[in-house]
Amino acid sequence: MATSNSATFNMEFTDIAEEAFERAGREMRSGYDLKTARRSMNLLTIEWQNRGINMWTIDSGTIDLVQGQTQYPLPADTIDLLEHQVRTGSGNVATQSDLNLSRISVSTYASIPNKLTQGRPIQLYIERLRDAPLVNVWPVPDTNDYKLYYWRMRRIEDAGSGVQTPDMNFRFFPCLVAGLAYYIAMKLPEMMDRVPMLKSVYDEQFALAAGEDREKASVRFV
After folding, report:
1. pLDDT above 70 (res 222)
2. Residue 18: C-alpha distances to residues 11, 44, 155, 156, 157 (Å)
3. Which of 69, 139, 179, 185 lies in the 20 to 30 Å Cα band around 168?
4. 120 to each of 42, 66, 100, 128, how far by Cα in Å?
C-alpha cells in the first residue's frame, strides 16, 4: 500500500481550538469560544516560557558597541540571553576574535566603583525590564570597534486569529492541544470532572515534547 509521500502536517489556530474543545467535551460553537481559546493559548505558551528553554525560540543577534556608551536595548521580545561574546577585529581573518563576557548580578554591577572606566568589555549585566531588556557592559567601550554577539531566547508569537499556524515546532502540537483542552475545561463548570484527566494528559505530553526539545551535544563536567 502506498504512503502519502508527505510530511507537512500543520494546524491552523481554528483547527487547534476545535480539537481542544472536543477533548474538553464540547463543540466550539461561537466566535466567543474562539476568542477564549485564543486567550488561553497565549497564556499556555507563556507558561511554557516560564518552564524553561524552548529550542525553536533561540536565535542570534549583534549590537555595535559605541565608545563611552554603557547601556544598549535588546529586541522587545527578548526573554533572556543565553550566550554573549564581544568580538574584536571584526571582518579581519587574521585578527577577528570572540571573547566571552561574564554575566554579573545587579549587586555585583552596583558594587563596581567606577562604572565609567573605559576598555574592552569583560562583564555584562542584563536588566530584565517589563517592556524590553537592557544590556550594561563594563568596562565601557573605549573604541567603536567592538561588537556584542549574543544568543537569546525570544517570546513565542501570539495565537493567530484563525488561519495562522502556531509559532512552534511540530513536535509540540500534541502538547499544545492537550494543554489548551485542559485550560478550556477549567473554565467550563460542566466539564470539571474531566479536568484531572486532561491535566494528566497535558503533563505527559509536555514531558514528552520537552524531553525531545533539548540540546543533544555531549557535555563534560570538570
Report:
1. no
2. 11, 16, 25, 21, 20
3. 185
4. 41, 11, 11, 23
